[in-house]
What we know:
Elements: H1 3-29, H2 42-50, H3 66-88, H4 92-99, H5 107-128, H6 138-159, H7 164-180, H8 188-205
Helix pairs in contact: 1-7, 2-8, 3-5, 3-6, 5-6, 6-7
Amino acid sequence: MSIMQYIAIAAAAICLCSLFAFFLKIVRLGKPKDLSEKSGDTKQGVIYSNTTAMMPQNKESAYLHWPAYASGILFHIGTLVVLLVFVLSFFPFFNRWISGPDKIHCIIPCLLAVTAACGYILLLRRAFSADLKPLSNPDDYISNALVSTFQLMTMLYLLIPASKAVVTLYYVAAILLFLYMPLGKLRHVIYYFAARYHLGFFYGWRNVWPKREN
């Protein structure tokens, strides 16, 4: 392995250890406590919170912004893909595959071209939207830029794996992302599940969720 790969592994290890510490902190806090009289089903509330409640028609305003909602979904799919590619990049069979004549592996870079574009579009939308700009802080921009750039560099890494410059930039993007992830909003990869559980518990307890059709 190259020195950049070793540094990338170290950055990923630091990231995972930090996220695990956040996870332990959440676990130590225990289950939510509601002092009101229970009138619903918390289990069904939690299930609804993590499934149907995420649909745009059940959100406060997502159904009014379909392009942004769809871009966000694609952006998150791209993020999962590049994290998987990062892990696979350390296995010889994967590197032989992307360097081989079989062009089916080009499907992944094509997908990442779309997801990275979605990320940069969302970044520009945040920067220039009269509604979003006042609500944004530097962390919002940095997080988006790091993830979008990592998706872009992963796309290039898959397309031209023989380029030393591309490979170096790919691992630099990975290192920056992993080192920043525990510091900013990207750590919602851990907090997201706890937040949805708490929401589902609260509204399920009070018999508000699952949503009832009129």
